[in-house]
Write a structure and sequence with these properties.
Elements (H helix, E strand, L loop, with lengths): L9 H28 L2 H24 L6 H34 L4 H7 L1
């Protein structure tokens, strides 16, 4: 059974939950932007956002007493691993899905360079 969140920890839970959302969105956006624009420096920022996400999730888990139960500890770890791996899988899925659609198209840049 989970212990309720202490009133003293309410603001910690609130702000760490908001940080989870912001850092998670930042990680996803920076990851996608890095891949779409081929800018490896943005990937470093994406992983920095993921590090912020990890800190926020651990803070939230401690403040909400989630580490007192092994089931919730497993869920927290599973979420962190999933959020690290999911953007990579989604990127490869999107590239694979759209690769066939763009094979038949004529690239105007390549046509111009061949002249």
């Amino acid at each position: 059974m989970l212990e309720p969140v202490l009133l003293a920890n309410f603001f910690i839970v609130f702000f760490s939950a908001a940080s989870v959302i912001l850092f998670g969105a930042g990680y996803a956006l920076l990851f996608a932007w890095s891949r779409v624009r081929s800018r490896p420096r943005l990937m470093m920022l994406a992983y920095a956002a993921y590090a912020g996400l990890v800190v926020s999730v651990i803070t939230l888990a401690f403040a909400a007493n989630l580490f007192n139960n092994s089931f919730w500890t497993f869920i927290v770890v599973l979420m962190l691993v999933g959020y690290l791996v999911a953007p990579h899988g989604i990127w490869h899925l999107c590239v694979g899905t759209h690769a066939e659609a763009h094979e038949d198209e004529v690239n105007p840049i390549k046509v111009y360079q061949q002249r």
